[in-house]
Amino acid sequence: MSKTFYTLLPDRAVIRVSGPDRVSFLQGLVSNNIETITADKSGYGALLTPQGKFLFDFFVYQQDEDSLLIECERGENGERAAELFKKLRMYKLRAKVELTDVTESYDVIAVFGEDALSTLSLDVAPGTTGHLAEGIKAVDPRLSAIGARVLLPKNSLAEMAAIGASESDVEAYHQLRVSLGLPNGSEELEIEKSILLENGFEELGGVDFKKGCYMGQELTARTKYRGLVRKRLLPIKIDGSAPEAGTAIMNGDKEAGIIRSIHGDHGLALIRLERISDDADLRAGDAKITVVVPDWVSLPATAA
Asked: Whose C-alpha in 93, 99, 125, 260 is 20 to 30 A from the C-alpha of 182?
């Protein structure tokens, strides 16, 4: 029996960027190299403040030869997608670009499980992309271990059963996501405060240091080349009563981090690297906290 599961991601929105200047327009704004996005390869990136702080993260797919699709946070009432749309429109200026909110035309689906990529006939390389019916299937551009993302036209979910995937609930996906250390936009990243390299964007393919200038590039490059990463967003295991997001993790009387999210007995926390030695006794409220460093994370030598 295939170990492939799928779930709708109701917190996602889709914006179409079309027109002859679509690539150059986004290239000067976002952290990743939009020129690498093709029918066979999708990508992950972020839009930053001019000071290099997080605003939005998203996935980018090629819809056709004239259009790109940005899959982004929707927000509780659609406000996050509306803010991104407004920001892109503000920077459009004279670029030959058309922006369209096409959220109501698509279902965004996470496909995960041991057999997810083989069920979708996808290679294991992050970002590998193809077509599924009238939609798009892509290995998650960040990390293939999380599975794939599928954009299907509305009312096409029968395609998932047709390939042998079983419906799951969204919480099962998020428990896997946090155990792997993958952020979910503003659920774990602080708007206008978080820094990309503290949140894994370099290892997860969300920033390109060779593409040239983009908004917020100076701080991002300085953080890398001066070795200024002192904190990292990392998975945690929780033993005991789960504290709330925002609770401080303490090592004795010193703060070792802040919990950003909790799903089941796992979560994500922004951890101060100098305070997570092997003998650290980490606590959050009444719970014992264990920090897990995923294989894909590259920590500074002094913190490894």
From this structure: 99
Q: What is the DSSP letter of 35?
A: G
Pairing between β-strand 12-18 and β-strand 129-132 as defined by DSSP bridges: unpaired
Rounded to two decimals, the pTM is 0.95
Average pLDDT in the chain: 95
Question: From CA 35, how far away is CA 39, in angstroms rounded?
Answer: 12
* pLDDT given for residue 225 in this prediction: 87
DSSP 80: H
**Start-to-end C-alpha separation, the chain:** 39
Q: Is the dihedral of CA 181, 261, 269, 58 positive or negative?
A: positive
Across the range 44-51, mean pLDDT stands at 97
Do 161 and 150 contact (CB within 8 A), yes or no? no
Domains and CATH numbers, the chain: 5-168 (3.30.1360.120), 187-291 (2.40.30.160)
